[in-house]
UniProtKB/TrEMBL annotation:
<dbReference type="InterPro" id="IPR056856">
    <property type="entry name" value="TPR_AP5Z1_C"/>
</dbReference>
<dbReference type="Pfam" id="PF25153">
    <property type="entry name" value="TPR_AP5Z1"/>
</dbReference>
<dbReference type="InterPro" id="IPR028222">
    <property type="entry name" value="AP5Z1"/>
</dbReference>
<protein>
    <submittedName>
        <fullName>Adaptor related protein complex 5 subunit zeta 1</fullName>
    </submittedName>
</protein>
<dbReference type="GO" id="GO:0044599">
    <property type="term" value="C:AP-5 adaptor complex"/>
</dbReference>
<dbReference type="InterPro" id="IPR055450">
    <property type="entry name" value="AP5Z1_ARM"/>
</dbReference>
<feature type="domain" description="AP-5 complex subunit zeta-1 C-terminal TPR">
    <location>
        <begin position="478"/>
        <end position="830"/>
    </location>
</feature>
<feature type="domain" description="AP-5 complex subunit zeta-1 N-terminal TPR">
    <location>
        <begin position="1"/>
        <end position="280"/>
    </location>
</feature>
<feature type="domain" description="AP-5 complex subunit zeta-1 ARM repeats">
    <location>
        <begin position="321"/>
        <end position="438"/>
    </location>
</feature>
<dbReference type="InterPro" id="IPR056857">
    <property type="entry name" value="TPR_AP5Z1_N"/>
</dbReference>
<dbReference type="Pfam" id="PF14764">
    <property type="entry name" value="SPG48"/>
</dbReference>
<dbReference type="Pfam" id="PF25154">
    <property type="entry name" value="TPR_AP5Z1_C"/>
</dbReference>
Length: 840
């Protein structure tokens, strides 16, 4: 969010009219022509930058102004502030010809970097980027008088190849490979020269170069890396740091073997031998081609970083640097091993030792992700067991680090990126849905003793949801992709309950963190009679409610689909329903439910569909009381209930008692009208002999009488009664369903016809007139009129209201012998044109 003053300036920049803009361009051109580089020029350029960048569309600048800005940018005598402003404006302004920027004639590194940033932003073709890249490579290859040329050039080159990797030819790639080797491996191990004062009577004198130090203060005993510290750095040490920062991107872009197929497999087998391991580490590495030599030196560099990370840093900032370098080093080693499997055998002892050292230290949790990636990619090649690594990954991460947003994102990205590989080749991931991971972590604030070994469960189902509950807005798109891989027939029901309880989980995780910050002495006294409900935080500590909270925080699946005291849990968490985290989590649930049902529909059998429908009916009333949450979830239930009925129409018969219990209660109309309407429609559509041979007249009559009683109750409106609290759509659906049922049991036709004939008086009552529009009242009367006329011809009514089960893909528009429009036209011709049965 911008401050009010900033928003006002941006609005002014967007709404400036063309006439004023032309005058402003002219004033700036005049200032630049007179080479007046004072405060007025700086202020005008700052305003121009705001104008050209305030909209998503590029502003077209006059050609004379563009030329003056280019001249200002390329002038060696311009101040850095003016170069920054002109570069920023040229990156946004249109039209700009990159060819007019004299990149080849520039000598100083600062101007080169600013001009290059404009070319990167405005280049329209590969040729323009190639010219820039070739110029930068020449600057790297030829030693310039300005010693900082390479330091400024390397980041620009990295950005250029990121935009268009194919701009470099093989010779250029080999050149950079050789330079990277020199910068990584042969940087000076002495600190840069620094000036010191020699006292009052003596001028400043240069100190003798001191050796670089390790992070623990010891003198660096090996070659220089980014983990070597000192008071000042030489130019080659700066290049060492720059080279390491772009190494991962460079290897992923250009360190790809051109040969593939059987030849690559043969080379892998040879390189995997002991002889290849010895030869790879021999002194003959200088004779290797540039690509292989870069791999070798990069691998040695990463090994040195892993070794340095074992030192205890004196400064906290160096500790954070160690963590970042470990992540980068393990990732680079993984890339190298993927391209050359011979490195796997050299890397695994280092990686295994690193994992053993860090696995118990949650401060280095982010390093475990690249370690797990390394095991996932190479454990099979090296015949190394990776089960312990993934036990650690899928247990400790979500259970204890759910409130670390960056770690949560990286963890979910790891699962998402490797989803297919984990399912196919990692037994722990495959068994987790529905099989078990047998190590259960304790919650951060233990409520009871850990789960006994005999109570097995599924870690991913319960632990990953903690990341989702705590970080739901940021991770919802990732979980939309990840959720299908977590679904299996045996865990589908529990996962559905877990999704519906995500707001509860978010609330309880919040309580868990807050409870840990309070001292035990601050606990409130309880009302032993239970007449006063404790607050959610107090209840979290009370042993009486321990079971409920423990279930929500369970580390394993398989202990039960849900609990019996959900309503009590919702009452206890009532003071959390307006918590921003809980509200945001509730907003993501409907999105994930759509993904859930679309995925389940692909493998659900009849038994599972029946179970799902029972859960929909039960949980539609058992949801946390968050604003709009129940309405949105019920809307999702409604749409997917129809899809489940279409997959398995017999569920209307198999779950007839539960469906009629819901449809027969008018209170459900006022609490969940959307779902109620769809249940009524499903009964009318699928309670038929054509969908289930078990359907009898008794079943149809029972359903008819139940719905008839409901429609009678809600349409008996007295003059003094309040306005209806249900939509006209519900009334028409109930009428249509009664007509459908009557067409299948023709003894019911007189009853429904008599009932429908009274709908005119319902629509004319004062409360209905006050609540419904004229169009809604007319729609109710018209529907009743149509249904009564249709039921006068029972055989035609059954044909129209009860289509055959094979009518899912009708061809009535082509088949003249079974044309529904033709049948309807014939019926209209047989019925009287004017029928006054609804009057009075």
């Amino acid at each position: 969010m911008y401050a009010q003053g900033t928003e006002s300036l941006i609005k002014q920049a967007r709404e400036i009219n063309d006439e004023e803009l032309v005058k402003f361009y002219g004033r700036i051109s005049k200032l630049l022509l007179n080479k007046d580089y004072g405060n007025e020029t700086v202020d005008s350029l700052q305003r121009l930058h705001l104008i050209v960048s305030a909209t998503k569309y590029g502003r077209r600048l006059p050609s004379d102004l563009l030329e003056k800005l280019q001249a200002l940018l390329c002038s060696p005598g311009s101040s850095e502030q003016l170069q920054v402003l002109s570069s920023s404006i040229l990156r946004e302004g249109l039209p700009l010809s990159v060819a007019k920027l004299p990149i080849k004639d520039l000598q100083d590194s600062r101007t080169t970097s600013y001009v290059a940033s404009v070319i990167l932003a405005q280049a329209k073709s590969k040729a323009e980027l190639a010219e820039l890249s070739h110029h930068l490579l020449k600057a790297v290859e030829i030693r310039q008088p300005d010693v900082q040329v390479c330091r400024h050039t390397l980041p620009i080159l990295s950005a250029a190849i990121r935009s268009s990797p194919d701009v470099l030819m093989e010779d250029h790639v080999n050149l950079v490979n050789r330079k990277l080797v020199d910068w990584l491996r042969y940087a000076s191990n002495q600190q840069g020269a620094s000036m010191s004062t020699g006292g009052f009577f003596m001028g400043p004198r240069a100190r003798q170069p001191a050796p670089m130090n390790e992070v623990d203060g010891a003198v660096a005993g090996d070659f220089f890396t980014v983990l070597c510290v000192g008071q000042s750095y030489t130019e080659d040490q700066w290049m060492n740091m720059y080279a390491f920062s772009m190494l991962r991107k460079w290897l992923r872009t250009y360190d790809i073997e051109e040969n593939s197929g059987s030849g690559a497999d043969d080379r892998s087998e040879v390189d995997g031998s002991v002889m290849s391991m010895v030869s790879a580490t021999s002194s003959s590495s200088r004779l290797l081609p540039p690509k292989e030599r870069l791999r070798e030196k990069a691998f040695e560099y990463c090994q040195r970083l892993v070794e340095q990370s074992d030192r205890k840093a004196v400064k906290k900032a160096d500790t954070e640097l160690q963590k970042a370098c470990l992540v980068e080093a393990v990732t680079i080693m993984n890339i190298i091993c993927k391209e050359d499997p011979s490195f796997v055998y050299r890397a695994f002892p280092c990686i295994k030792a690193l994992y053993s050292r860090l696995s118990g230290d949650l401060a280095f949790s982010r390093v475990l992700l690249p370690i797990a990636q390394f095991y996932l990619n190479h454990s099979e090649t090296a015949a190394v067991d990776s089960e312990a690594v993934f036990r650690q990954l899928f247990s400790s991460f979500p259970a204890e680090l759910f409130n670390e947003p960056m770690l949560a994102f990286e963890f979910v990205q790891f699962c998402r990126t490797n989803m297919a590989v984990l399912q196919e080749s990692m037994p722990l991931y495959g068994q987790s849905f529905p099989n078990l991971l047998k190590v259960s972590p304790r919650p951060s604030v233990p409520l009871v003793s850990p789960t006994p070994p005999c109570c097995h469960g599924n870690h991913n189902l319960c632990l990953c949801r903690k990341f989702l509950a705590w970080n739901s807005p940021a991770l919802v798109s990732e979980y939309m992709e990840l959720l299908p891989s977590l679904l299996a027939p045996s865990t589908a029901i529990e996962l559905l309950h877990s999704l519906l309880d995500l707001p509860c989980l978010a609330a309880v995780l919040d309580l868990q963190l807050r409870s840990a910050s309070y001292a035990a002495s601050e606990k409130t006294l309880w009302d032993s009679g239970g007449s006063k409900a404790p607050s959610s935080l107090d209840a979290f500590r009370q042993p009486h409610y321990r079971g409920m909270f423990l279930y929500i925080l369970r580390p394993e699946a398989g202990t039960g689909d849900t609990i019996d005291r959900l309503r009590m849990l919702h009452d206890i968490l009532a003071d959390m329903v307006e918590s921003p985290r809980v509200v945001q989590c509730a907003q993501t649930v409907p999105v994930l439910l759509h993904v859930y049902f679309h995925t389940v529909a692909q493998f659900a059998d009849d038994k599972l569909i029946n179970q799902l429908v029972l859960v929909l009916l039960e949980r539609s009333s058992l949801l946390m009381d968050i604003k709009n949450y129940q309405t949105e979830v019920q809307r999702v239930f409604s749409s997917h209930l129809l899809a489940l009925c279409k997959l398995h129409p017999s569920l209307i018969m198999e779950q007839s008692r539960e469906l009629l219990d819901m449809a027969g209660s008018t209170i459900n109309i006022y609490q969940k009208e959307e779902l109620y309407t769809h249940v009524v429609w499903a009964i009318g559509e699928y309670l038929s002999l054509s969908h289930d041979a078990r359907c009898t007249v008794e079943h149809i009559t029972s359903s008819f009488e139940t719905l008839e009683a409901v429609l009678f109750e809600i349409t008996q409106v007295r003059q003094s009664a309040s306005a209806p609290r249900f939509s006209p759509r519900l009334v028409t659906v109930l009428m249509t369903t009664l007509a459908k049922l009557a067409s299948r049991s023709q003894d019911l036709i007189p009853r429904v016809s008599l009932f429908l004939s009274k709908m005119h008086s319902f629509t004319c009552s004062a409360p209905v007139v006050a609540c419904y529009s004229e169009e809604d009242r007319e729609a109710i009367v018209t529907r009743a009129h149509e249904l009564v006329n249709l039921l006068k011809l029972p055989n035609v009514a059954q044909f129209v209201l009860t289509p055959s089960a094979s009518g899912d893909t009708p061809r009535w528009h082509r088949d003249t012998n079974a044309s529904l429009p033709f049948a309807m036209r014939a019926l209209s011709g047989l019925l009287p044109k004017h029928n006054t049965f609804l009057t009075g």
